[in-house]
Design a protein that fits this description.
With 157 residues, the protein is of the alpha+beta class. It has one domain: Hotdog Thioesterase (Thiol Ester Dehydrase, Chain A), CATH 3.10.129.10. Helix content is 25%, strand content 34%. The protein contains three helices and six strands, in the order H-H-E-E-H-E-E-E-E. Strands 1-2-4-5-6-3 form a six-stranded antiparallel beta sheet. Helix 1 packs antiparallel against helix 2. The longest helix is centred in the middle third of the chain and has 19 residues.
Length: 157
């Protein structure tokens, strides 16, 4: 089953260029403006796998000096949504249906969201819910936040 789409093709082209990953990530943030507040940067993207990063900046911190919970939710949705986008075949579409999160440890550093879904589900004609897990890690590779995003997958009309 062919899983290639425009997002994946453009990522593969851009990621090979100097500053291409940063430019591509900014373009995604222009298309979905709420990601602009966290300034995410894509690191890896392929079907079933996405790694994205964000810097800890004053803008995304709370009164305790740690990364704000909603900023981590946005990073998780960025990684989980893009992993889903490049994994779902062109005959199907997706939309997040809900998200459950766990705050494991205070986030005191830059962050990395890791979303790995293997094996990929079978994409049949019947709609289904696909639970996508995203682990957000600090610079010491400790998980500080975990999200499960329930993606609703259905065929295109």
């Amino acid at each position: 089953m062919k899983r290639s789409n425009q997002a994946l093709k453009s990522w593969k082209r851009a990621s090979k260029l100097p500053l291409g990953a940063s430019a591509w990530s900014r373009l995604v943030s222009l298309r979905a403006p709420y990601f602009g507040s966290i300034a995410p940067r894509m690191v890896e993207l392929e079907p079933g796998r996405c790694i994205a990063e964000m810097r800890k900046r004053w803008r995304v911190t709370n009164h305790l000096g740690t990364v704000h919970a909603i900023a981590m939710c946005n990073l998780a949705e960025f990684a989980g949504g893009l992993m889903t986008e490049v994994s779902v075949p062109p005959t199907h579409r997706w939309i997040p249906r809900g998200m459950s999160v766990d705050y494991v440890h205070p986030a005191r550093t830059d962050l990395r969201a890791v979303c790995v879904c293997s094996p990929l589900p079978g994409f049949a004609d019947q709609p289904f819910e696909w639970p996508v897990t995203v682990d957000v890690q600090d610079t010491g590779s400790q998980t500080v936040f975990r999200a499960e995003i329930r993606m609703w997958i259905s065929t295109r009309p």
